[in-house]
Amino acid sequence: MRKFIFNLHLYVALIAGAFIFILGVTGGIMAFEPELDHVMHPHRSYVNPAGTPLSLAELSATVLKSFPGDRVGLYRLSTEPNISYGLLLEKGPALYVNQYTGEILEQQGEGREFLDFVHQLHLRLTWQSPSRPGDKIMSWAGVAMLFLALSGLYLWWPAKRFKISPGASGRRWWFDLHSATGIFSLVFIAVLAFTGVMIGFEKQTVPMFYKLTGSSPSEQPKIKVTPAPGATPISPDQVLAVARDAMPGATPFLILVPQPASAYQVRLRFPEDLTPGGRSRMLIDQYSGKVLYAESSRTAPAGTRMVIANRAIHTGDIFGIPSKTIMSLASLAVAFQAISGVMMWWKRTRKKRQVQVTKQNAVSA
Q1: Rounded distance, CA 49 to CA 152, Å?
Q2: In the predicted model, is pLDDT for residue 101 greater than 80?
Q3: How far apart are CA 136 and CA 143, in angstroms?
Q4: Torsion, Cα of 342, 343, 349, 355 (10° steps)
Q5: Measured between alpha carbons, how far is 48 from 84 in angstroms, rounded to an integer?
Q6: CA distance 85 to 156
Q7: 283 in Cβ contact with 292 (< 8 Å)
Q8: In contact, 295 and 247? CB cutoff 8 Å
Q9: Secondary structure (DSSP) of 351-362
Q10: Which residues are CB-neighbours of 202 under 8 A, at least 6 positions away?
């Protein structure tokens, strides 16, 4: 049985190793994606807090002087006073804006940025296709990673190597390093792999979460707004006020401006919600200001909260910087395990070849 598990461990690693390496490296970067974006682009990310931010109406009016005839379709509001706002124009580019002065800090170009490339590489190998082959490959790579973690524990158990043996070299050195690194990072790697599989196969796992909790997802209504004659839309600033009143304690950070027959979409974040995308949402009638739908991360169905928790654990957002650091290091440990595993296999293969050559030479002699 041990030989069978060893060979299975080896062949799964050789087949999926490259994809697992990509998952590890990109995952280690993605854990700090917002922070890295700010560090890599300080000129567009940071602003000097100077008094009270402009209202969204004032901000729009200032920005649109440079884009006459256009319209703001999305507002991304920062929850930290020294981080800039983002505006997306319907016809023009995405903008980074100083919310205190209305100054346009940068227009986002059409080319893919490094962190976006890393994100897409992690999710789908940057393979954009309706049939989603890249998504499937990386999801199954997550399954392979989980199997390797569990089978690795089984293989590690008899020898229980916690450190590199004194004087070890060659394959033995890589073996000890692979074993020691694997056992100390095993729990975190297994958690990463398990939660990643839950995300990768969400069509199957999300219904399972609801079934396990005996809950059902809240249904977002289909919105078709019919304005009364002469009715005018409320402003994004009024939408902010409505959202804050309707969900006390939550901070709105994203507003999607609707077309005439639709509704405002608002994303909100509670203090304990440390995920960049937030987990609370709201639909607001653009003419009456009535809340048409609201789902709070605090009161969402149990299945929804399980989905939220699973994703927050996987990304490391659940406890902020400490958990992000742990998950980033665990992801990098995954990449290192892939490298050390390949080195072990290569040195083992090379040694076998050397032995075969020696035997052949002896027979020839």
Answers
A1: 51
A2: yes
A3: 11
A4: -170
A5: 9
A6: 50
A7: yes
A8: no
A9: HHHHHHHHHHHH
A10: 307
- Report H helices in 33-132: 33-40, 42-45, 56-63, 114-124
Token couple for 232 = 């005018």
pTM exceeding the 0.85 threshold for the entire prediction: yes
Mean pLDDT value of segment 2-22: 95
Sheet holding 85-89, edge to edge: 104-107, 94-97, 85-89, 72-76, 251-256, 263-269, 280-285, 291-295
Quote the DSSP letter at residue 30.
H
From CA 213, how far away is CA 230, in angstroms rounded? 47
- Rounded Cα distance between 269 and 275, Å, is 8
Task: Find tokens 């490391």 and name the residue.
Answer: 316
Tell me the two tokens of residue 172: 């033995």
Average pLDDT on 252-257 reads 97
Q: Give the bridge partners for 305, in sequence order.
A: none
Distance in angstroms (rounded) separating the CA atoms of residues 87 and 71: 10
* Token output for 314: 């996987």
Token duo for residue 35: 């922070």
Token code pair at residue 161: 């190597």
d(CA 179, CA 353): 24
Angle of the 2-30 helix axis to the 114-124 helix axis, nearest 10: 150
Per-residue pLDDT tens over the stretch 213-234: 999 999 888 888 777 777 889 9
Quote the CA–CA distance of 155 and 147 in Å, as a whole number.
12
Name residue 85's beta-bridge partners.
Answer: 97
Tell me if 49 sits within 8 A of 101, measured CB to CB: no
How far apart CA 198 and CA 209 sit, in angstroms, is 10
The whole-number average pLDDT for the span 25-43 is: 96
